[in-house]
Amino acid sequence: MQYDVFLSHSTIDRAIVDLIRNELQALGYRVFVDYEALPAVQPEEVTRETADALLQAMRECASLVYVLSAHSAGSNWMPWELGFFDGARGRVFIWPVDDEAETYAKDRRYVNLYPSVPR
Question: Smallest Cα–Cα separation from 7: which of 86, 93, 84?
């Protein structure tokens, strides 16, 4: 595996994602973040090219961390990434970013299927 962690996130949460990436890297993990590794990919555009690039990246990762926020519901890719990764690797973790994310999780019961990173 080229990466230990694939960070699944909303593009609106970039500042939070940077903090999470930094924290994971400080612990020694190799972290994939799309806007760093695939700068040409436009996540707001749902295209076959974007899907193929994300699929290839997920195949090179050992686990997925789902960065759960109030913005997750608006992401075109997060549910798709979660479903693919669960089926392909099964190593999925939920990282709720704040109390609002915890509330959001109650409405998206599928995130409760996976272990959660304590805040």
Answer: 93
In which residue are the tokens 């020694």 written?
A: 28
Residues 6+ apart with CB under 8 A from 117: 65, 93, 94, 95, 96
pLDDT tens, per residue, the chain with 119 residues: 799 999 999 999 999 999 999 999 999 999 999 999 988 887 777 889 889 999 999 999 999 999 999 888 888 899 999 999 999 988 999 999 987 777 776 667 788 889 988 87
Structure tokens at 15: 């500042």
| Nearest residue to 53 (alpha-carbon basis) of 73, 29, 36, 65 | 36
Reference 51, options 80, 11, 86; nearest CA is: 80
Q: What is the DSSP letter of 32?
A: E
Question: Which residues on neighbouring strands pair with residue 94, listed in sequence order?
Answer: 66, 116
- 61-68 sheet: strands from edge to edge: 31-32, 3-8, 61-68, 92-96
